[in-house]
What does this fold into?
Amino acid sequence: MANNTRKIAGGMHKTYSLDSIKSFLTDRQTRKTDIAGNIGLTRLDREGLKLSTDNGVVNLKPTVTAWKQLLELASIPTEFFIDRLSVEERISVYNREVAGKVNLDRKFRTSLNEGINLLYAAVSPKYRELDNDKVFDIVDKSEVPLVGVVGSGINFDHSKFRFVERDATIASGQFLPMVEIINSESGQGAFTMFAGVYRIACTNGLMVSVSDELKSRLIHLGNSGKSVGDFAPLWNLARHYADKHNRAQNIIVGTDEKIRIANKAKDAGLSLAEVESVIDTANEYYNGGNNLSNIISSFTQAAQQYTKATNLEKRTRMETFAGSLLKAA
It folds into this structure.
């Protein structure tokens, strides 16, 4: 099965111009095609997946996400199909199960990459295309001046775009206002905008962030008439959080409170290993998390362990939890 990862555009501590990211996304967008069809018109053979259309048969190479979507529609357990069946058994089972589903319409989202039609999603016909190139329409329409892009991770399932003031002086330990936009082009999540804070970690030169979700969330299904939101209010909220993060340096955190925060993190879905990595980070870089600002920074710096595009969701979860601590301060 094909991997659904696209190369990360940009390093984690360098500010990129809007034009450079726009150019990357424009090129990426020109290679995409949505094909209307239904799962009953797909067939699997030794050469791969094929989709019959009015214009002929299209050869497709599904990503992991697209395979999961197809198998769910065909009522085939994904783990059973991938791990238990031989190639010949997969062909037989898949073709048998989809044969009776000719009325199950899908929008097949494809991208032409090096001569291969990559199938990255099989979504509802009502799915609204709100792709990553639309992110910059929001920024262009706003009145926020001097915005640069830092540390964007781009893939079909989960993309992150982080905006800071392009001309900001990025000094070690400085907290900067940030707006983060998260999006999925494969039906894996809503288009969501966050207000948060960026900070350069003095120990490793990486940009680390803390994000807090504002009420600016838009699902892709059936929202063709809705606006994706305004960038400017989030920017103002980000400034508020940057100031709040600075004040959090004066909030002393004792042992009992640290234990409570660790338990709360696990309740929020962080694994034991992730929580332990936060504790290790606090002990090594942030005076054991002696104040709330240092605890928040420990979470966001520990989240940097997830550098691959396929792990962006885990990173976002850790950063969003850190944002909840800042919001409650």
